UniProtKB/TrEMBL annotation:
Signal peptide: 1-24
Taxonomic lineage from the root: Bacteria, Pseudomonadati, Pseudomonadota, Alphaproteobacteria, Hyphomonadales
Keyword NAD on entry: no
InterPro entries attached to this UniProt entry: DUF4198 (IPR019613), Filamin/ABP280_repeat-like (IPR017868)
Protein's name according to its UniProt entry: ABC transporter permease
Signal listed as a keyword: yes
């Protein structure tokens, strides 16, 4: 894949809309605890898309799309998964010491296509293989775009570890400078983004404290990644936070030009000192 141009902007594709707007639908994964102690612990994760952060009022995520990765990289069994109309949930048992990743999205990108046929606008969504099998890419004046998105959160049992953050080198990826389970109010926090394995510079990021439903102003924090792909901010309010960033540009896949969009969203917790 050859990237011709890349323009960084604050956006989330699909059901992830630009943060900071009053009517935005924000996707989030919220664990019952971000940090745990002991030999083993149960964790419950809420999964929803809502107008207000961590207050389910729009649509529940499909728990079948959510994975849990243990500190050693192995898959963790999900139990008691249930999909609700406005909130879904799942449980998992943490038995290894270290940091777990709970995620949906990622993996292979999916594709959108639109074209005119018999005076009617047609739209299609699916994999690249299906697009070719169905001849969608051969439609006259077809417009194709590639999209990928990730929604994640992290839980640590015992001491934080970093193995689950190993980059795959594809798309927009999060890298901790400050570990997301080691964040405290009043202290600077630094996170990093990679795009296709390289530092994503100039990326605009929006960070929002949870429970915005109960505030007169959203208290959005805005930051921009530097040449190393790092952005820094200082959380002032204790509690869960949500942040999002996205990129949009142009690419060519096997000779087919298309728009390419990537987004990343995560939740973490800031503890009072």
């Amino acid at each position: 894949m050859k990237r011709l141009a890349l323009r960084m902007l604050a956006a989330s594709t699909l059901f992830l809309t630009v943060a900071g707007t009053a009517s935005a639908h924000r996707a989030w994964l919220l664990p019952s605890s971000f940090t745990l102690s002991g030999d083993e612990q149960w964790v419950t994760v809420d999964a929803a898309i809502s107008n207000d952060l961590f207050f389910p009022n729009h649509h529940g995520m499909d728990p079948a799309t959510i994975t849990v990765t243990a500190p050693d990289g192995s898959a963790v069994e999900i139990q008691n998964a249930a999909k609700g109309e406005i909130r879904s949930m799942l449980d998992f048992k943490a038995t290894q010491q270290g940091t777990y990743r709970i995620a949906t999205g990622g993996g292979e990108p999916f594709y959108f296509a639109s074209w005119e046929e018999n005076g009617e606008r047609k739209r299609w969504r699916g994999s690249l293989a299906d697009m070719r099998a169905e001849g969608i890419d051969k439609k006259p004046d077809v417009e194709v775009s590639q999209s990928s998105r990730s929604v994640e959160t992290f839980v640590t049992l015992g001491a934080p570890s970093t193995e689950v953050f190993a980059p795959a080198g594809k798309g927009l990826e999060f890298q901790p400078v400050t570990h997301p389970n080691d964040v405290f109010t009043g202290e600077p926090v630094s996170f990093k983004f990679l795009m296709d394995g390289k530092p994503a510079s100039g990326l605009e990021v929006e960070i929002l404290p949870g429970n915005d439903r109960y505030r007169d102003t959203p208290s959005v924090i805005k930051a921009t990644t530097n040449a190393e792909g790092v952005f820094t901010f200082t959380p002032e309010l204790p509690g869960p936070y949500w942040f999002t960033a996205g990129s949009e540009g142009d690419t060519v896949v096997d000779g087919m030009p298309m728009k390419v969009r990537s987004s990343y969203t995560a939740t973490f917790e800031a503890l009072p000192l």
